[in-house]
């Protein structure tokens, strides 16, 4: 379980998050939605421990919290074969008794990645394939909480659809908590069970995805929905 109690974060000249009260239970599939500057990425950094709140408390019953970042091209060393990039994190994996083949190859099959791609460099695979390797490198470590930051933003429609299906299957199989951060409410609606809406650093809405069109939605949430209904 993850709890944020009256959390705030600010820089000397800018207030970023205020009065964040949030509980995410184990196994939940949650989306965090908001426009640029709403505080989404700062919230992610706080949960990951990259930043520390200036006020409030963040409590978690696990330290196994890992991110999947948006830009796969910036996540891999361009001079390193993908096999090496995937092998390195496994050196520190708690279940080291399992081999590369036992851990990675079954996941590659689920991610629709041919094993021959392991011998290539990042610029020798498609953007969609590289993003799936980006996903693979994190999910193979089986984090208790997985945070996905805008990971479909740079993909075309076909690659985006494939990745959405993959994320849903990973959540179903690993039963980990998954937090997906996005500015695209249409993408989140296809994946998550619960949506949290940030606007100017505060939570303005928190609801089950199936209730997205309820009249009870905050006006800001409705404005996000309207953009994708036009």
TrEMBL record:
Q: Does the keyword Hydrolase apply?
A: no
The identity of this protein, by name, is: ATP-binding cassette domain-containing protein
- In Gene Ontology terms, what is a biological process of this protein? transmembrane transport
GO MF, one term, reads:
ATP binding
Q: Which residues form the ABC transporter domain?
A: 2-225
- UniProt xrefs under Gene3D superfamilies: P-loop containing nucleotide triphosphate hydrolases
Q: Write down the PANTHER family for this protein, in alphabetical order.
A: ABC TRANSPORTER, ATP-BINDING PROTEIN, TRANSPORT ATP-BINDING PROTEIN
What is the taxonomic lineage of the source species? Bacteria, Bacillati, Bacillota, Bacilli, Bacillales
Which InterPro entries does the entry mention? AAA+_ATPase, ABC_transp_ATP-bind, ABC_transporter-like_ATP-bd, ABC_transporter-like_CS, P-loop_NTPase
């Amino acid at each position: 379980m993850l709890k944020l109690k009256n959390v705030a974060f600010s820089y000397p000249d800018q207030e970023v998050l205020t009065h964040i009260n949030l509980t995410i239970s184990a196994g939940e599939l949650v989306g965090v939605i908001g426009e640029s500057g709403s505080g989404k990425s700062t919230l992610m950094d706080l949960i990951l421990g990259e930043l520390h709140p200036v006020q409030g408390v963040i409590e978690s019953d696990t330290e196994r919290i890992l991110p999947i970042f948006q830009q796969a091209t910036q996540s891999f060393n361009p001079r390193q074969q993908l096999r090496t990039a995937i092998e390195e994190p496994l050196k520190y994996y708690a279940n080291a008794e399992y081999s590369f083949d036992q851990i990675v190859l079954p996941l590659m099959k689920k991610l629709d990645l041919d094993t021959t791609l392991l011998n290539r460099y990042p610029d020798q695979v498609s953007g969609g394939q590289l993003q799936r390797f980006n996903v693979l490198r994190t999910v193979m470590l089986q984090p208790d909480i997985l945070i996905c930051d805008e990971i479909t933003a740079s993909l075309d429609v076909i690659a985006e659809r494939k990745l959405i299906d993959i994320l849903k299957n990973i959540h179903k199989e690993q039963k980990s908590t998954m937090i997906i951060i996005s500015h695209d409410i249409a993408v989140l609606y296809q994946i998550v069970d619960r949506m949290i809406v940030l606007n100017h650093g505060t939570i303005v809405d928190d609801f089950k995805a199936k209730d997205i069109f309820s009249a009870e939605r905050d006006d800001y949430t409705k404005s996000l929905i309207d953009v994708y209904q036009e």
